[in-house]
Design brief:
Length: 144
């Protein structure tokens, strides 16, 4: 299985959520590193900063979680990947024309599905229902 995980699933690995156990189970059997794009790094950091705003964590805890993420990159759990933004956005626009009229997918949903497809993933790890429906329509297996 070559998997791509969206940020909603990934943040569940760092912050206690109702989806944390399912996220841990989804990544526990992976045999290859999860690709992580600059988009994912931004979304993860922003989610942690949002958690500060909500009083769920402190800035110090955010920094510790950031160091944990850096350690997971160094250890090979994640691999940093760059996709040309023009290619990523073009693919997302194609997906928008095919899926948004019926599924009401959002731009970030489409960017994640586009990234998975461009990276040659066969599996999308996500909890987002609309994103998952678009991914299935594109031939991806969705976990969990």
């Amino acid at each position: 299985m070559k998997a791509y995980a969206d940020t909603g699933l990934l943040i569940s690995l760092y912050l206690p959520e109702t989806t944390t156990a399912a996220a841990q189970a989804a990544v526990s059997s992976l045999s290859s590193p999860l690709p992580l794009l600059p988009l994912g790094l931004l979304e993860l950091r922003n989610a942690l900063n949002f958690a500060i705003n909500r009083g769920r964590i402190t800035a110090s805890e955010r920094d510790l979680l950031g160091k944990n993420l850096e350690g997971q990159i160094r250890s090979g759990f994640f691999t940093l990947v760059n996709l040309p933004s023009a290619e990523l956005h073009e693919k997302a626009r194609e997906l928008s024309d095919r899926h948004t009229p019926l599924l009401a997918t959002r731009s970030l949903d489409l960017l994640h599905v586009a990234a998975a497809l461009l990276l040659g993933a066969d599996t999308l790890l996500s909890f987002d229902a609309r994103q998952c429906r678009a991914a299935v329509a594109e031939g991806l297996v969705v976990v969990p």
